[in-house]
Amino acid sequence: MSITAHPVVRPGVMRALWSLARPRQWIKNLLVMMPVLFSGRWKHWDDLLTVGIATTLFCVAASLCYVINDLHDIENDRRHPDKRLKRPLAAGHLTVPQAVGLGLVLLSVLIAASAWQWRVTAGLGAYLVLSLAYSRWLKRVAVVDLFALSSGFVLRTWVGSAALGLTLSAWMGISVLSLALFLCSLKRLRELRRYGSLAREVLSGYSDALLVRYAELSAASALTCYALYILTQRPALAVSFPFALFGLFRYWQLVEIQEQGESPGDALLSDPVQAAVAVGWLISCLWAGR
Asked: How many Å apart are CA 78 and CA 72, to the nearest integer?
């Protein structure tokens, strides 16, 4: 009996380029819009347009960082049990020149927009430098990697404030940093439990118990600082606090019981309860700024 070999069906180049840009991760960039939401300036179309442009540029910058990261880590990704199948370069769906071409296009967009607002440009530049440093060095150093990743979340919020000419509240900045540390700690915890310390070099510097303690400390800090921001800056936002508290509880439950958590964005998009909580939080914030 003869066996017919079926050729491997590869996605089209455009689809692979789209995957390389990781649009599912753009949900993180909604943090750029937080200042317009909390300040109540979402009622003004010009402010919405301004923060919308800033968010779009951050999506471009983030995708550029993903391209650079995948180019740098192509060999490591080919040895990873999941990334070798999901990352377009590691899976062989794209060539290096094609990925470089996408990176140049994204870089050109950022250069063309650099004259729009110098503070936004400075924030995007800081994010690019931080991301490159993370890809080359910082991601290999335990604890440093958590703070490097989390600082990118703070920069997103700062860029949103800068685009509107606002000053980012210290309590809000610390709250965002703490929330990001909570998410990053649980991301590392999920990776450690699923793959062990061999899947990522930095995981050898962590233990299960240590990451749980980091997550607990970060969650407490995030909630405390968010409460202080509400009390000192926007008391009307108190209606949003129960949603924030429930969201942390639900996310941790997804990590512990349903074994999710490697991607906060995916957890939000795939879990209807978490999505409903996010919508409830958004509506409460809009109501507070009415």
From this structure: 12
Distance CA 28, CA 65 (A): 14
Coil, strand or helix: which one is 79?
Answer: helix
pTM, two decimal places: 0.87
**Start-to-end Cα distance in the chain:** 73
CB 106 within 8 A of CB 135: no
Q: Would you state the structure tokens that stand for residue 43, as one six-digit string?
A: 């009622």
Angstrom distance (rounded) from CA 236 to CA 140 = 42
Q: Is 250 helix (H, G, I), strand (E, B) or coil?
A: helix
Torsion over CA: 100, 29, 156, 179 (sign): negative
d(CA 95, CA 103): 13
Residue 145 neighbours by CB under 8 Å, 6+ apart: 134, 138, 139, 184, 202
Going from the C-alpha of 149 to that of each of 41, 66, 145, 182, 202, the distances in angstroms are 29, 13, 6, 11, 13
Q: How far apart are CA 288 and CA 275, in angstroms?
A: 20
Q: What is the 3-state composition of the chain as percent helix, strand, coil, each rounded to the nearest 5?
A: 80, 0, 20
Q: How far is CA 232 from CA 5, 97, 171, 241, 282, in A?
A: 68, 52, 9, 14, 20
**What does the pLDDT read at residue 6?**
41
**Is-contact 142 201, C-beta < 8 A?**
no
Profile the chain (290 residues) by mean pLDDT over runs of 10 residues.
42 84 89 89 89 94 91 78 77 86 94 90 94 89 95 95 92 95 92 80 91 96 96 92 94 82 68 90 87
Q: What is the structure's pLDDT at 8?
A: 44
